[in-house]
Write a structure and sequence with these properties.
This protein has 216 residues and is mainly α. It is built from 9 helices and 3 strands, in the order αααααααββααβ. The protein has 2 domains: 111 residues, no CATH class; 78 residues, no CATH class. β1 and β2 form a beta hairpin.
Length: 216
């Protein structure tokens, strides 16, 4: 469910960061004060239910340009909660208007950078935030396997592991199965300690095969 909020390809954070961060602050403040209004509690329960039901299905739209459709469905609830609970003195009058214009400008800038009303088709490319994470902090980028495979290889459909990003050049991140150690080492060289530990955990006889990430 976290992908709906923070995944750099399909989550809300890369596209409406001001709204997401402000809503997190509101929730933290309400938890600190132990004071949630009943309508906001109801809206929060609806959002959690939507997140669970949308991601519990076996086929939800990982391949997408921009945020997934499911977070977009949740945006009206998010904005309503911000409007109801964001009644702080610091966000009143001129300050509130200035903050709103900053948020609108930031979000419009993100939309314009993606191509505006005619966005570039990008569901088989890692987003800009994802590419930054792959280059500098690959361990922080942990999308679902379908997202990683299709956007790394630049095409839809399944693929045999290991799937290594970048597809050419120095290895930064690889999606692997327990049987892929020799192949991964042949292509990427010696494994980091975390990678060796992952293979040790997941090659136990009788243990179900699993997919995981190795970061370089």
């Amino acid at each position: 469910m976290k992908d709906l909020w923070v995944d750099p390809n399909i989550g809300l954070l890369p596209y409406v960061p001001f709204a997401v961060l402000f809503s997190v602050v509101i929730v933290a403040r309400s938890l600190w004060r132990r004071s949630f209004s009943a309508p906001s509690l109801h809206l929060g329960a609806i959002v959690i239910g939507m997140m669970f039901l949308c991601t519990a299905t076996v086929n939800w739209n990982n391949g997408t340009s921009g945020p997934s459709r499911y977070p977009i469905w949740m945006l009206p609830i998010l904005f309503t909660t911000i409007a109801r609970e964001g009644d702080w003195p610091i966000f009143s009058g001129t300050a509130a208007l200035s903050a709103a214009w900053v948020a609108v400008g930031l979000h419009l800038g993100i939309v314009a950078a993606g191509g505006g009303v005619l966005p570039r088709i990008s569901y088989v490319r890692h987003s800009v935030p994802a590419r930054v994470l792959l280059a500098y902090a690959p361990a922080w980028y942990r999308p679902t396997p379908e997202i990683f495979i299709e956007r790394t290889l630049g095409r839809e459909g399944a693929a045999a592991t290991p799937v290594i990003s970048p597809a050419s050049g120095a290895c930064r991140k690889a999606l692997v199965g327990p049987q892929d150690r020799a192949s991964l080492e042949a292509r990427c060289g010696p494994l980091p300690a975390a990678g060796r530990e992952w293979f040790s955990r997941n090659t136990t006889p009788g243990k179900p095969a699993a997919l995981g990430y190795v970061d370089f």
